[in-house]
Description:
By secondary structure, the protein is an all-alpha fold. The chain has helices spanning 2-21, 28-41, 44-59, 66-78, 82-90, 98-110, 114-125, 140-150, 154-169, 178-183, 192-199, 209-215; strands spanning 138-139, 173-174. The longest helix has 20 residues, at 2-21. The two termini are 34 Å apart.
Amino acid sequence: MWSWLKMSFTGALEVLIEMKNQDVRFTKDTYVLAFAICYKLNSPESFKICTTLREEALLKGEILSRRASCFAVALALNQNEVAKAMSIFSQIMNPESIACTNLNIIIHIQSNMLENLIETLKNAAEENLSKFVKRRAFSEEVLAKVREKVKDVPALVAKFDEIYGTLHITGQITTDSLDAVLCYTPRDRKSHTLLLNKKMVSRRTFQPLSQSLLAE
């Protein structure tokens, strides 16, 4: 099953690269799709492609969406490129989404910033917010990684367990994995798969873009 999906992602990425080579303008949603595919492929090559696309976009003065940047950060973390992940994350405007919240925790874990990590969780658990303001939520999967990281430091384990209990009481823990959080698409938004299908059609020939490019 994964091999089939990987082939599909690879094929889609090849089409996007060809679009780029043909100077087809990328929209914000196209970048989201491209970075999401690179994240799903999770290879040194896809990381290089994602990095190149991102740097080219920034050089052109294009503004990348928070969601696109989150996929780029997640891919960098999966490839153990922590410094790159931190750099991309630092450039995200308003990193208040659930994806950003959890990626920030992973960055702290992989950077061994354990004291800051515990402090970040503590601040989130003790936030005195209006009932109309949504609290930061943490993935159970990500919190499990935190506990694994601090398990050999008794003082930090005790603090974490206390904070975890508070987060549980305040309803700030979700069973969704980080991958599910990253890939979640609100129902009122068009599927990026449909977006890709739309982009893959040549405006001039109304043929699939891949066929049109080959014909040219």
